């Protein structure tokens, strides 16, 4: 879809204090996070995602047109509690199928002799997870990371890819055609969908006859679900926002991995700024600027990755979690926190002190880009027959939608063709036939 530019939440106080709003990406979602990983603490998600990553690797095998890399996910902690949390997660993730867990603490004078550095390019490299202890060893690998970091958990079969290239490759492989428009209704006969009514972007209405219908509408799945008069789904939409920082100071090497700070962080405001943030908070009157809460310690989970041409993606999901999303969400999103870029920088300088140089001087070319995460309560995928006898749903994958799309598409095709289903299929059905055996742990949010 071609959309107009996203606009910031308008607030005269913040404009006076911080200058004009930062530029918004003229093409919403142009900068997807585009990451993938194969570690989960869920007996169903591990084989599901392992299969999906294998499909990505098969697709990249010939010429790597999707620019798949395996730089890994690196989680850092500077506290004893954070160290224990990363150790516990590493052990659990390894036991759930993420591969062997290796420890590097410099004992016996071996230093990093047994630690394999991730390749900057390509998708072949180490698997499993590595725990690296002590600021000296961590800074030997990543000199720009804070000396406060006591431990680094490096998950290996992880990285990112070119999302648009992946879409083009899938369309090319399927021979599919793109019709731009909106689903406005269905024709049904004896409980089956026989045609889909579409209002095209050029105003022309068309009726598409079909043997089966798949609702993969993301944040608008429930809208389509209602049009089909199917039972409701327990989906929730969350705002997903990314800052695109033009790293003119060269703080983050473009060869760096995906990096996450696990511990809580104090944003360290000046006294006069604290007073201003208390006055700015408008949540008591139904607003979205919850600036009073920024004075307290913030949960960890802030993360970044380089995205080419000297740019860096910055994200901190919890900052928009309080923002209510309407039942029929808008796109492009008009309401991002105006201070989101500065908040991300303030949070991430705990992990990378060099980013502190941007706190008072974010360039006007800093931009914000965003869409939605659509999630199920149990964090599992939704790939299932639903509604009409030949209707299906595919989505609800939230933080792992792109990386899970190959396995989800394959599983959906197996349903359509009535082929034998893989072991994880039951966990993706609705209503659920199984529940996670362990509490879901997400290291992109603060874990205990």
TrEMBL record:
<dbReference type="Pfam" id="PF01266">
    <property type="entry name" value="DAO"/>
</dbReference>
<dbReference type="InterPro" id="IPR006076">
    <property type="entry name" value="FAD-dep_OxRdtase"/>
</dbReference>
<feature type="compositionally biased region" description="Polar residues">
    <location>
        <begin position="8"/>
        <end position="18"/>
    </location>
</feature>
<feature type="region of interest" description="Disordered">
    <location>
        <begin position="1"/>
        <end position="26"/>
    </location>
</feature>
<feature type="domain" description="FAD dependent oxidoreductase">
    <location>
        <begin position="43"/>
        <end position="238"/>
    </location>
</feature>
<dbReference type="InterPro" id="IPR036188">
    <property type="entry name" value="FAD/NAD-bd_sf"/>
</dbReference>
<protein>
    <recommendedName>
        <fullName>FAD-dependent oxidoreductase domain-containing protein 1</fullName>
    </recommendedName>
</protein>
<comment type="function">
    <text>Required for the assembly of the mitochondrial membrane respiratory chain NADH dehydrogenase (Complex I). Involved in mid-late stages of complex I assembly.</text>
</comment>
<keyword id="KW-0560">Oxidoreductase</keyword>
